[in-house]
């Protein structure tokens, strides 16, 4: 039993958000999440914390942000930095990844369209790409 009907124990919170309770404990250890209250040593979370957990999940999944980056964004502007710099850095990393994935997709599309039976061995374009990748001694 908990004193406030809006507070949920860690197990319910984890189930509602599809997380392991160990993940929530770890996030608390890392400083990105704090329970609303504790009752008899049990962590209890309110609506604000549920929203924060969902936000952390969204940032990890869609923004591909690390917990360190998330902690900076959640802290806002500090003496040592600004959350906007963290977001700009993450966006630059995502742009680099998009470029690599675009190149990979084009390369794989070539493999599919190559008329050779063994493109890895017989395709002139693949051969040229491989040779360019090998550095002279």
Description:
This protein folds into two domains: about 10-65, Multidrug-efflux Transporter Regulator, Chain: A, Domain 2 (Orthogonal Bundle); about 85-135, no CATH class. It has about 140 residues and is mainly α. Helix 4 runs antiparallel to helix 5 (about 85-115). The protein is built from seven helices and three strands. InterPro entries: DNA-bd_dom_put_sf, MerR-type_HTH_dom, MerR_fam. Keywords: DNA-binding, Repressor, Transcription, Transcription regulation.
- What's the CATH topology label of the largest domain? Multidrug-efflux Transporter Regulator, Chain: A, Domain 2
Strand content: 5-15%
How would you state the average pLDDT, rounded?
A: 91
Helix content: 55-70%
The total count of strands amounts to 3
Tally of individual helices: 7
Based on helices, strands and strand pairing, what is the structural class?
mainly alpha
Major pleated sheet: 3 strands, antiparallel
Instruction: Report the principal-axis shape.
Output: elongated
Number of domains: 2
Alpha carbon gyration radius: 24 Å
Give a brief description.
The protein has 137 residues and is mostly helical. It has 7 helices and 3 strands.
List keywords for this structure.
137 residues; mainly alpha; Multidrug-efflux Transporter Regulator, Chain: A, Domain 2; 2 domains; 3-stranded antiparallel sheet; 7% strand
Describe the protein's topology.
Blueprint: E1 8-9, H1 10-17, H2 21-30, E2 37-39, E3 42-45, H3 47-61, H4 67-75, H5 83-113, H6 119-122, H7 124-133
Antiparallel strand pairs: 1-3, 2-3
Helix pairs in contact: 4-5
């Amino acid at each position: 039993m908990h004193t406030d009907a809006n507070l949920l124990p860690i197990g319910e919170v984890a189930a509602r958000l599809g997380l392991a309770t160990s993940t929530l404990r770890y996030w608390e250890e890392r400083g990105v999440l704090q329970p609303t209250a504790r009752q008899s040593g049990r962590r209890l979370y309110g609506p604000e914390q549920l929203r924060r957990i969902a936000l952390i999940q969204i940032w990890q999944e869609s923004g591909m942000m690390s917990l360190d980056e998330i902690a900076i964004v959640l802290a806002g502007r500090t003496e040592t930095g600004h959350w906007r710099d963290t977001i700009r850095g993450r966006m630059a990393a995502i742009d680099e990844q998009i470029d690599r994935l675009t190149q990979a997709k084009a390369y794989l599309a070539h493999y599919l369209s190559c008329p050779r039976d063994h493109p890895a061995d017989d395709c002139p374009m693949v051969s040229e790409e491989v040779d360019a990748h090998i550095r002279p001694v």
